[in-house]
Amino acid sequence: MKVLFPAGIVLIAMVACTPQQPQQPPSPQGTLTQQWAGGGTGPTVVGGSAGNTTTVFDGTYKGLSNRTIIAAGGGLKAVDPPAAGCQQFDEPPTMTIANGLAQFQALGVTFAGYMTPQGHLRMSSGYGPTVDADFDAQTRTLRGRANSTNCHYDVAWQKTA
Predict the structure, then answer these.
(1) What pTM was estimated for this model as a whole?
(2) What one-character-per-residue DSSP string does the chain give?
(3) What is the CATH number of the domain that holds 112?
């Protein structure tokens, strides 16, 4: 037992002196036209499946107004006042759907995903943030939620062409 005590102290000292992993940098702040660190021009990850899509929803979709939800806060907030640490924008960027593949760009990152025949869309940025939306045939509108680590947005796009 006397031998185990000094060995335990040495083990604790070794663990305490081991370098710790650096924390990840915070997500970028600013406008939707700023470049996301490491972002490229094409999609890095595509949500959905090319084998389970349709061209019925192909077209151009104009972004409609959105609302911001703060993950740590209490409830739905309007875009004004700004949610702490969340990107602020009046409407989502224009989205195009071609051959069932939906895409839009924000922060220099391409969000991409395939529409299902049932009208569901799951988009990925390849950097964590995602979009889930469903098509409403009566209003020709895609409505859904954009999610990142700390921020969530209710988003909508109206089919224009």
Answers:
(1) 0.65
(2) -TTHHHHHHHHHHHHHHSPPPPPPPPPP-S-TTSPPTT--SS-SS-BS-GGG--STT-EEEEEPP-EEEESSSSSEE-SSSPPTTS---SSPPPEEEETTEEEEEETTEEEEEEBPTTSEEEEE-SSS-EEEEEEETTTTEEEEEEE-SSEEEEEEEEE--
(3) 2.40.160
